[in-house]
Amino acid sequence: MTTNFSRRNVLQLSLGAAAISLLAACGAKTEDVGSAGAAKDLLDINVGYIADYNGAALMAVADQEGYWAKAGLKPKYLPFTNGPLAIQALGTNNVDVVYIGSGALWLPASGKAEIWAVNSVSNADRIIAQPGIKTLAELKGKKVAVPTGTSGDQLFSLALAKEGLTREDFKVTAMEPPAIVAAFAAGQIDGAALWYPLIDSAKKGQPDLVELFSNEDFIDTFTFPSTFVASPGRAAKDKALATGFISVVKSANDYRHANQDTTIALTAKFLKLKDEDMAAQASVAKLFTSKELETLSSEGTVYTWLNGLQEQFKKDEKIKAITDPKTFYNSELFVSTPTV
């Protein structure tokens, strides 16, 4: 499928290339599993994550419960700030599979990645504004920061369509999420498309910030799944790696579903953050058991989610045409892979 990359998308991904090697070098967290002798028999897997509850909880659980070794894998973790950067890294030798939010699913739809597993459904995204601004229309002509190609960008498009506005009505500036937090706290921008837990950080500088829109405002029409993705064709090429990873994710997912409080504590420890921060992040995630995800996949519900998102991506000119979601999500692989 031909991808219609806008100039801002190409620029965003190009600027992110330099950051990938830095993240891999400075932020990687490696877990040694088992004894030195046993570790030699394990298959190495490089896993990209985003440092929040949705993006790291299953990694924290898998470490705690020893699921990696049970699946014959030895993980190395690499942090990313957003999904498009993580997917770009799939084209290197640094990472095998990465976590992404729903806003980056236009890249799998464009043939840039394949989905191995659904993680959760998110309600973490928000359109925020400085204190005193009560509607999106009041931001017209003002500076709004948007992290290109992310779930925040996606929510911004939905909000604009709902309000009958366009991006040309605002001074839209493409910025990386951490830079948005700093700029918002300093009053350098008037609004932003962002997500929790970054909004918690923004509130430290502007505690009276206003939330104008959230995912929940569109829940009747759109579902916002976060997923784990790999390079196109990777599962067929390295089935042992793919099924091993999926088995770990499904096992950790069921543990998380049954042990929310413990998972919050494990994730906080994994990310070196406070338990209360993780609890707040967990509150904006809708979780399913792996059996429920199997049913949602086999009955076609996940494909319906992906088609709905593709319709939005096409309107935003991120993709030229809607493609069969079976080309980038093999539900049979997910359903047929057992837990460890």
TrEMBL record:
InterPro entries: ABC_SsuA_sub-bd, Solute-binding_3/MltF_N, SsuA/THI5, TAT_signal. It is found in: Periplasm. Pfam families: NMT1 (PF09084). Keywords: Signal, Transport. PROSITE patterns: PROKAR_LIPOPROTEIN, TAT. Gene3D superfamilies: Periplasmic binding protein-like II (3.40.190.10). The keyword Transport applies. Residues 44-274 form the Solute-binding protein family 3/N-terminal domain. Coiled coil: none annotated. One of its GO terms (cellular component) is membrane. It comes from the Bacteria. GO terms for molecular function: ATPase-coupled transmembrane transporter activity. Residues 1-24 form the signal peptide. Belongs to the bacterial solute-binding protein SsuA/TauA family. This is Bicyclomycin resistance protein. It comes from Arthrobacter alpinus. The lineage of its organism: Bacteria, Bacillati, Actinomycetota, Actinomycetes, Micrococcales.
